[in-house]
Amino acid sequence: MKQISSIITAAMLLFFSSCNNNSSEKKETKTNDTTTTTKVPEPPAFTPFTVMLVQHPVKSFEKWLPAYQGHDSVRKAYGLTELAIGRGLDNPNMIYIAMKADDVEKAKQFAALPNLKETMKKSGVTAAPTISYLNVIRNDSSKTDQKDRVLLAHHVKDFDAWLKVYDAEGKDTRAANGMIDRALARGVDDPNMVYILFVITDMAKAKARFNSPDLKKVMTDAGVDSKPEAHFYKLTN
Fold first, then answer.
1. What is the CATH number of the domain that holds 100?
2. How many Cβ atoms are within 10 Å of 236's Cβ, its own excluded?
3. Tally of domains in the chain
4. Which residue has the higher pLDDT, 31 or 133?
5. Residue 170 and residue 219: Cα distance in Å, rounded?
6. Which range has the worst mean pLDDT, 6-20, 27-41, 82-96?
7. Averaged pLDDT for residues 107-124
8. Which of 24, 93, 16, 105 is nearest to 61 (CA)?
9. Quick check: 6 and 155 in contact, CB under 8 A?
10. CB within 8 A of 93, min separation 6: which ones?
11. Domain that holds residue 198
12. Has residue 222 been placed in a domain?
């Protein structure tokens, strides 16, 4: 197996939370004539991490899953920890897998294992997988019962310039269009490849937004220089 295409498609990520203020808040409490100051601990700072994304079709999800799970010890030996598995909304036998990678080179070694191709074939994988490696720089891991996701992938001319436009658009605008920010990542091999993960709260609004002239203008202004790929899936775990 190898990483293919400049725009990958993949599942799951699961993903993501961002950094907070540098200073601790202080809270004063007054008991009778005594005033005490209590420090409110800060949440831990977010640490970027690497994800291996895999997408492939299978004959049957129900037959593929036990075979995939039986290979878990091999994945762990190469520093890979499953984060999420998703199934395509249009095609439930299109599988998206997100795995946290302790070491990118070891993850690539896993992808190149001689017997992996045969293992996947036996599990019912029907086409060569699409694999990519991402640096996750924002991640909201807060609990949500919503399982629908969309992964948007595209290339930009300059990441910093793109990020300014993306942040100016704002979370509230995206939320009003049925999409809650979940994760933001950059390609390991090409940092100008951008991957954005959203929780979908309103599918009709989200799809309308992806096809809207307003979003096309935002992307043009941000320096998107490839055709965006939007992949809708549902988490299985």
1. 3.30.70.100
2. 16
3. 1
4. 133
5. 13
6. 6-20
7. 93
8. 93
9. yes
10. 57, 58, 59, 60, 61, 87
11. 49-235
12. yes
